[in-house]
Amino acid sequence: PPVRRILRQFTPDTLFCQSPATYAYFEKLRMWPWFLPSGVDTNRFQPVSAGYKSVLRRKHGLPLGEYLVFHAGHLTSARNTGLLAQLEGVGARGVMLAGSSMGADPRLKTHLESEGVIVIDRYVERVEELYQAADAYLFPVRTADSAMEFPLSVLEAMACNLPVVAHPYGGLPLALRAGDGLTFADTDETMLAAIVAARDSTEPIDTRAQALNLTWERVAGRLLEATDVKRDAGTIAAKV
Question: How many alpha carbons lie under 13 Å from residue 8 in its C-beta half-sphere?
């Protein structure tokens, strides 16, 4: 309660949030935030040809003839990364880029690798190449506070035009609509089933179309609109 009183007393002119839960919290305090999604660099994260995908797999030591499902995140059980170990049972193989800034569970790494998951826990300068080398992206996080409220990795995968299967985490359902290769799934079982469906689908994938609406330039435009900053369009583009 003391913190809430202080927040009400020092309400900022403009407040941003990235999930319905955070919005509801501030709404109860009679503070009216704007929803501001994350953005993505669609020049860096972009689709590649099947031939170049094979080149990237060779570069990063990834198998050529398997359906690779990528996930980037911290190597902790709270992120439900154990689901990657179940991919082999549905005819796919997990590849995880394990971030270390929030710690890592060495036992989880051992378990994942014993189940056939490829865990990359070294620094990768051109991280976009791992997305581009994959066939699909899985975001299995279900526990609140186990990831940022609008996960960047989902947008990065979509910018590379990958099929994406994600739990409807945080603000994702507010800014993204299911379809054209993006699937929201609530349980482990439905996420695995969606990976199988993506692998077997003959429908065109166009997840990049939604990513193009969430470039950093467009997100910056939303921020400027909310703060009522008026600038010449050329100046804004140059600053961004």
Answer: 9
Strand stretches in the chain, DSSP E: 16-17, 34-35, 68-74, 93-99, 118-120, 136-139, 164-166, 182-184
Nearest of 146, 188, 149, 189 to residue 172 by alpha carbon: 149
- Strand duo 34-35 + 164-166: pairing: unpaired
> Residues 6 or more apart from 180 whose CB is under 8 A from it?
204, 205, 206, 207, 209, 210
Place of tokens 């994959």: 134
Residue ranges of E strands in 76-208: 93-99, 118-120, 136-139, 164-166, 182-184
Sole residue written with tokens 């590649």: 48
* Least confident residue range of 5-14, 101-110, 130-139, 178-187: 101-110
Task: Indicate the DSSP class of residue 194.
Answer: H
Contact by Cβ (8 Å): 131, 155: no
Q: Which tens digit of pLDDT belongs to each residue from 80-106?
A: 999 999 999 999 999 999 976 555 688
- Pairwise CA distance, residues 161 & 207, whole Å: 5
Distance CA 89, CA 240 (A): 45
